[in-house]
Amino acid sequence: MDSNRYARHVVLPEVGEEGQSKLNERSVAVFGLGALGSSITDALTRTGVGELKLVDRDFVEISNLNHQILYDEDDLGKPKAEVAAERVKEINSDVDVKGHVLDIDPNNAEELVKNVDLVMDGADNMELRYLVNDACVKKEIPWIYTAVLATYGMTMNVFPGEGPCLRCLIPEKPPRGSMETCESAGILFTLPRIMGNLASTEAAKFLMGKDTREELLTFDIWDHDLELTKVDRREDCETCVNGDFEFLETEEDTITELCGRGSVQITPSKKTELDLDKLEKRFDHAERKGESLLKIYVGEYTLNTFKDGRAIIDGTEEPKKARSLYSRYIGH
Ligand SMILES: [Zn+2]
To answer: In the chain, which segments carry CATH 3.30.310?
Structure first.
């Protein structure tokens, strides 16, 4: 390791030789490698965190390049986790990095948070955050919640056993479709970097064993309106008090082979309602059949997708193949 790399950091009284060497020994997982996850990964790579576990299920798209700092035009269509891991090696070869191209779900969440010192939230949806909260509280792994929308962001450190968790702050997950998303409300190009760097600063303080912020930080970067709010641990918190980890429940989806039809039906375990209008717009070859059915044509397969989340997949009798087509084109 070339000690010159961290010279400007070590000279800070807040860091010093000791702080820097702690950073170099610690491991962090980043869940989600969109705008926030990219900024966090870049910051932690440059500061010399010893080990990074990067997890994302998506591919790089043109609309990502506006604010996701790890990717460029050559990366279009490639899995983000793979591109990000390569980029980390180019920036700082001291970092031991691994990219995982996968969907974080109730079956793998606990395994993914194991053996890391800290988990960083780069998620773009609340479902994943509640899952991460359950997994981290259960395994007693600290994590840092961060969310961005339009010109506004928020971040809070979650240290299981010490302070509030995500469900102390927001007890019930907002219903699907009830919240604005980055697609509908947009995102100011500098916001993920600012919030990602604020969260990464707390990450570094924690990894060096320094005192960290206890409050929720909210920041509207357009109006320079920054606030710190004390969040209490809720006496009746389902997750960190009652130990009810409902988002980790791992019921498998039901897969039924439809004999003689060359089709397989997938019924999701969790009750869900698909927005077929939205889904239809994602495909070049899709055909609406009434209110609650959308036929999606993908090569030799037809995904007959129902509003209740069910899909009958024509063109295969293999449950595994059907399952992977479902996850890939319809999601969870
Ligand atoms: Zn709680």
So the answer is: 254-329
CA distance 67 to 188: 8
Kindly list the strands in the beta sheet with 301-306, ordered across the sheet, starting from the edge strand earlier in the chain: 254-258, 263-267, 311-314, 301-306, 293-298, 286-288
Architecture of domain 3-248: 3-Layer(aba) Sandwich (3.40)
Q: Active-site residue 182, yes or no?
A: yes
Report domain 254-329's class: alpha beta
d(CA 126, CA 169): 13
pLDDT (tens digit, 9 = 90+) per residue, 34-58? 999 999 999 999 999 999 999 998 8
Distance 225 CA to ligand 1 centre (A): 27
Report CA(167)–ligand 1 centroid distance (Å).
5
CA of 123 to the centre of ligand 1 (A): 19
| Cβ count within 10 A of residue 145 | 23
Q: Do 92 and 101 meet the contact criterion of CB atoms below 8 Å apart?
A: no
Task: Kindly report, as residue ranges, where domains of CATH 3.40.50.720 are found in the chain.
Answer: 3-248
Cα 153 to averaged position of ligand 1 atoms, centre (Å): 21
Q: What is the pLDDT of residues 3-21, one digit of tens each?
A: 689 999 999 999 999 999 9
Task: Give the active site residue among 165, 168, 182, 240.
Answer: 182
